[in-house]
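To the structural biology subgroup,

Please find below the input and predicted structure for K(lysine) acetyltransferase 6A, which we are adding to the shared reference set this quarter. The sequence is reproduced verbatim from the submission form. If anyone notices a discrepancy with their own records, reply to this email rather than editing the shared folder directly, so we keep one authoritative version.
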Amino acid sequence: MVKLANPMYTTWILEAIKKVKKQKQRPSEERICNAVSMSHGLDRKTVLEQLELSVKDGTILKVSNKGLNSYKDPENPGRLAFPKPCLGRLDWNKLIKRSLEGLHEPGGSTLKSVERFLKCQGDVAAYLSGSGSMGPGLFHQQLRVALKRACAHGRVAKNGLLFRLISRSSQSDGTGTVVLDSLPPVRLLPHEKDKPVAEPIPICSFCLGTKESNRDKKPEELISCADCGNSGHPSCLKFSPELTVRVKALWWQCIECKTCSNCQDQGKNAENMLFCDSCDRGFHMECCDPPLMRMPKGMWICQMCQPRKKGRKLLHEKAAQIKRRYNAPLGRPKNRLKANF
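Predicted structure (tokenized):
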């Protein structure tokens, strides 16, 4: 007779895994045993036995890296190498970026190519099979609208029937584009200091090349996500050389792990997250300073990277801003009474 895990013990172990991850630590056997013992008084031998049984029946996921074992909740695996199926709603910004980077066609990709690429992705296929309301026709329509919106927001360029990602260039053409070299040096935020960094994966997630050989068969250093370890060549990520230098100095997150650098949340209003063209950090529109009401077009620099205005200049700007606010008319102007003599 096959012995199965006790559902109650499995629940306790999953709670322990969640608790350990909240403490920004790796859910190892030792930490899981300590957490379950402190919360429920279960002895170490029983915890390890139930943990192994839970792994066998698939209710807990076991991940090994360089001889170290970690345990994850299959329903919420966190930042694994492949994006998990999302049955809530699709994040079109991430899907469009992933497809155009994955196709990597020099002149751009057609709507049909993007749609075919996405339908072959595991998370999209799972979403389409699990969502009865999202048929092929509706998926095509929503993708077309999402591409149109991405073009309007300056993320994607359209040339005839071809779509391509707008490269994060730092060249100034006199149209208001900011030269990255003119900005202050990037610095770690308080919550990023002393934060653990994941073991880098020495393979590019886009072209499957290494630092010795990128998509063009040339040597190129990899940039690795501090959260999950996934790596990518700057050329595959569409990073300019200046942006690459700035990103390497930061606690960088890939597109799948990206959280808002202000509220440190990922799921809240994911579609309204902006990516700074100076440091690649993410910010919700409402978390910007000042909050943004609509997506900016073209290049956008976050409040962390913008040059700080000092002294009298800042004081004059704030005073003018307050003056404009109080001088603005409230509602409809009142009709002036004309005296009749």
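Summary notes: The chain has a mean pLDDT of 77. DSSP finds nine helices and eight strands in the chain.

Regards,
Lab coordination
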